[in-house]
Specification:
heterodimer; A: about 325 residues; alpha/beta; Rossmann fold; 5-stranded parallel beta sheet; B: two-stranded antiparallel sheet
């Protein structure tokens, strides 16, 4: 009956998003009067998970699962769900979770709701609030199936600590050859760089920066804040920055704690994509830029003047508050 | 190579989003509908396979007759024929089932869908379709080559990309990067004229029990006014972010 959580990790360290979904699962489990079972892949020390509400850990250790493989991971989670008699599975909305959740949904004959931003309104009917129209609206979705899968939006619930201890046991799902028919040839991942998906703070630049050669100050500011860098659609279309940095309706969604938009006017598509961020700051020389209507804080002025100054002041602030 | 491109009929990205019938229905009044952008990148990549590798390209949509102009646009861009499954799209699983039913019959080697539609953002149809067809699946696909029976795909992952190989039949959840924005084709007059003569087959749906139901909608609470900070007083901004917003 327990609520099952897919716990993602990287190099043995749990992803913050997974601690958040564990916290979410705990609250769902309390609502349903049951416990939380976390499923980990190739991690040794799982004791930390108890702090975030996990009561039991199924540890999968399998060298074939070293690289993420959606089909194999989905199969493993399916078997874990069956073993636990699970009625609710909770996943994050990372690229990997979004990849495997629909596969798992078909295998478990489960209804799946993605981009969920709140705890279910009740156990029966089971209704969840999710974002739709790329954050321009919320949608209340009723899941009708016996087994339900919830994809929880990043930063929607928060990481919550709870007291308790977790038991751990090894779990060896039966994986077939078909589970490994998509093979990873190469992984190309920037090391030591904060990703937009994981970032608490995102610093984003737009066309107002005039050219790719001016991104140094954006990167400097991001470094000071421990932030990820991002950009608007025209900037990625013109090839100033890679597509992977494009945030907005057709790019990546951003659900950071703090989003700083520099030289971005705030087209409706851009605002939709970043709307889930908690606090928005805009720096733009045009006081009429639509972004000022969407932002919490704004500075009207020349980015080339403001950004380096802001960076210096933030460094001082960081040094004082370290 | 037989390619099927799944097309969602969605409000244009600039649309204002409103609801009617006590917030249970999307208000289509004054809304322009387009090919879902994530699908359009896939369709354009399919056109490349058609031109360079002699692939045939069918497009499909699950929806009522009002979605036909969107399918005609896909034909004008260069697809060979269109299929409309004659039922409203209600939930991701129902759409995937309808698509799977047609795809099974068609014996497609490659099925391209967008990673998500920009209206409901479910992000589940491509994966569910692959699972129902027992075909290989690559999501958030930003690069795709096919050589004989082998596909090489690039998948966007958090913080980078991953190159994978898989045999056909393959289902792709596509997005920008499959082709560049500048590669997208605006249908020309000849394409539009030809599209009128291309087949658009209407297929009746199979019975599906939906998994989820969208009950009602809500618009986000209106935003409070922005707090402006003087560019000569950036310390104030830092203090606001630290003490008021508590984000640094």
């Amino acid at each position: 009956m327990s609520v099952l959580v897919y716990i993602e990790s990287e190099e043995g360290k749990f992803k913050t998003a997974s601690l958040e979904v564990a916290s979410y699962a705990k609250e769902v489990a309390q609502m349903l009067g049951t416990t939380v079972t976390g499923v980990t892949f190739n991690t040794e020390d799982v004791s930390e998970l108890a702090t975030y509400g996990v009561d039991k850990v199924l540890k999968i250790n399998n060298s074939k699962l070293k690289n993420f493989n959606a089909e194999a991971y989905a199969d493993a989670l399916k078997q874990a769900a069956e073993k636990e008699g699970t009625k609710v599975v909770v996943v994050s909305q990372s690229a990997n979770s979004k990849y495997l959740a629909p596969l798992l949904a078909v295998h478990l004959n489960a209804g799946y709701a993605s981009n969920v931003v709140a705890i279910p309104e009740g156990a029966s009917p089971f209704v969840v609030k999710r974002t739709a129209f790329t954050n321009k609206a919320f949608n209340f979705t009723k899941i009708d199936t016996d087994i339900k899968i919830i994809g929880v939006s990043k930063n929607a619930f928060g990481v919550k600590e709870s007291q308790g201890a977790a038991t751990a046991e090894d779990f060896s799902p039966n994986l077939s050859e078909e589970d490994f028919s998509v093979n990873v040839i190469n992984v190309d991942k920037a090391k030591d760089k904060v990703t937009i998906a994981d970032a608490e703070i995102v610093v984003s630049g737009g066309r107002g920066l005039k050219g790719p050669e001016n991104w140094g100050m954006i990167e400097d500011l991001a470094e000071t804040l421990g932030a990820a860098t991002a950009c608007s659609k025209p900037v990625s279309d013109m090839g100033w920055r890679p597509h992977s940095e494009h945030v907005g309706q057709t790019g990546k969604p951003v659900a950071a704690n703090l989003y700083i938009a520099i030289g971005i006017s705030g087209a409706i598509q851009h605002l939709a994509g970043i709307n889930s961020s908690k606090v928005k700051v805009v720096i733009n020389n045009d006081p009429e830029a639509p972004f000022f209507k969407a932002a919490d804080y704004g500075v009207v002025g020349d980015a080339f003047d403001i950004v380096p100054k802001l960076n210096e002041k933030l460094k001082e602030f960081k040094a004082k508050n370290a | 190579m037989k390619i099927l491109v799944c097309i969602s009929h969605v409000p244009d990205t600039t649309s204002k989003i409103n609801f009617t019938d006590n917030n249970t229905q999307f208000d289509t009044n004054g809304v322009q509908f387009v090919i879902n952008p994530n699908d359009e990148f896939g369709l354009t990549r399919a056109m490349w396979f058609k031109e360079k590798q002699g692939a045939s390209v069918d497009v499909i949509n699950v929806g009522g007759p009002e979605t036909e102009p969107t399918l005609r646009k896909a034909l004008a861009i260069g697809a060979d024929s269109a299929i409309r499954v004659n039922t409203p799209a209600t939930d991701g699983f129902q759409v995937a089932k309808q698509l799977a039913n047609v795809a099974k019959e068609g014996g497609y080697d490659l099925i391209i869908a967008g990673r998500e539609s920009i209206d409901y953002n479910g992000g589940m149809v491509p994966g569910m379709l692959a699972a129902l067809l027992e075909a290989n699946f690559v999501n958030t696909c930003i690069g795709l080559e096919v050589d004989g029976n082998e596909a090489k795909a690039i998948r966007e992952i958090d913080g980078g990309k991953e190159t994978v190989s898989a045999k056909l039949p393959l289902v792709i959840g596509g997005q920008k990067g499959l082709v560049e924005e500048s590669d997208l084709k605006i249908p020309n007059m000849r394409g539009i004229m030809m599209a009128r003569k291309k087949p658009l087959n209407v297929v009746e749906p199979v019975d599906v029990t939906v998994h989820t139901e969208a009950e009602k909608f809500e618009k986000p609470a209106p935003k409070g006014a922005v707090k402006l900070v003087d560019p000569d007083n950036l310390d104030e901004l830092i203090q606001l972010l630290h003490k008021e917003a508590k984000v640094i």
